[in-house]
Amino acid sequence: MKKAKVLLVDDDRDFVETGRIALEASGKYEVIAAYSTQEGLQKVKQENPDAVVVDLFMEKPDSGIELVRNLRSQRSDVPIMVLTSNSGPVRYAELSEEVRELGVSRCVKKPVQPGQFSNLVGRLLNPAFYELEPMAYEM
Asked: Residue 83 CA to chain centroid, in angstroms?
């Protein structure tokens, strides 16, 4: 069975490594790592991922949003999940609206447990199979 390619873009190398281990342990995913918005855009072109997971706050506060905008201009079909550790309720509401308009499938608050992360990516790639609860913004 062909493994799904998941591009994981985050400037937090520990999170990327933990995410990689969690996803690859399932045997279902090949993880492509990127540690900046620029590297993320390059990997989208080079690797043609099946799904993209992006941290919203990297080099600059709007780096993740800009990355998603650029991704959407290149690949309108790829499912995208954004992550954020920003915890303010007002900011969450703003982010939720902004990422929804960009066609993001899911917005999740960090930290995310490895098992939960693997399940969220599975639901991102196979929403019909993971229909136990609807895809939603979890901010």
From this structure: 6
Q: Hey, what amino acid is at 114?
A: P
**Per CATH, domain 4-125 is 3.40.50.2300:** yes
How far is the C-alpha of 60 from the C-alpha of 117, rounded, in Å?
A: 24
What pLDDT, on a 0 to 100 scale, did the predictor assign at position 41? 93
Say whether 54 sits in a helix, a strand or coil.
Answer: strand
Instruction: Give the CA dihedral 17, 19, 25, 28, nearest 10 degrees.
Output: -130
What six digits make up the tokens of 117?
């992360």
Consecutive 10-residue runs of the chain (139 residues): their mean pLDDT?
Answer: 93 95 94 96 95 91 88 89 71 67 83 88 77 42
Amino acid letter, 78:
V
What lies within 8 Å, CB to CB, of 14 at 6+ separation is none
DSSP for 94-105, please give it.
HHHHHHHHTT-S
User: Per the structure block, which two tokens stand in for 93?
Assistant: 């509401």
Residue 84 near residue 53 (C-beta atoms within 8 A): no
